[in-house]
């Protein structure tokens, strides 16, 4: 039998029945799922120092276990001393097993390491996707604190097959994403 991440098994055995019951679905195929997780790091100061991109790519590959790609500027902007084609960020798209492995490490290890952590905002984008902003890459245990030259933030986007924000919120909540409690 092939390897299956524990969070993928958890999705099939626990999350799907829970969401089917909550939204009264008649088929398992109606149940939303996470299609991909995209990690993006914008590095504006990379226009002055080219080493920042190399360091960010190394750190991102440590965090995700996958080689990132450099995102490049699309057009010239003189005010920012930016030329088209200049690398200004790095990104990684995770799917399948690596996606579930990363999600489990994020929920169970990285997010609880944030100082004074009391949950993440629960605002979706209107299409069933969710973006989480992280201010420090050092919350991931794969990053060695002694080798960090500069603290960088990143965006983590969860792309789901959910038709509505309510379905996507229920899906991510069932996975264990620690959303803040709403005070009504």
Description:
- With 184 residues, the chain is α+β, with helices and mostly antiparallel strands.
- It contains 4 helices and 5 strands, in the order H-E-H-E-E-H-E-E-H.
- Strands 2-3-1-5-4 form a 5-stranded antiparallel sheet.
- Helix 1 crosses helix 4 (165-175).
- It is globular and about 55 Å long.
- It starts with 5 loop residues before the first helix and ends in a 9-residue tail after the last helix.
- 27% of the residues are buried.
Count helical runs.
4
In terms of DSSP E residues, the strand content is 15-25%
Structural class: alpha+beta
Relative helix content: 25-40%
Order of helices and strands: HEHEEHEEH
Q: What's the short story on this structure?
A:
The protein is an alpha+beta fold and 184 residues long.
Task: Give a topology summary.
Layout: H1 6-23, E1 34-42, H2 51-64, E2 69-72, E3 87-94, H3 96-110, E4 130-134, E5 154-160, H4 165-175
Antiparallel strand pairs: 1-3, 1-5, 2-3, 4-5
Key terms:
184 residues, alpha+beta, 4 helices
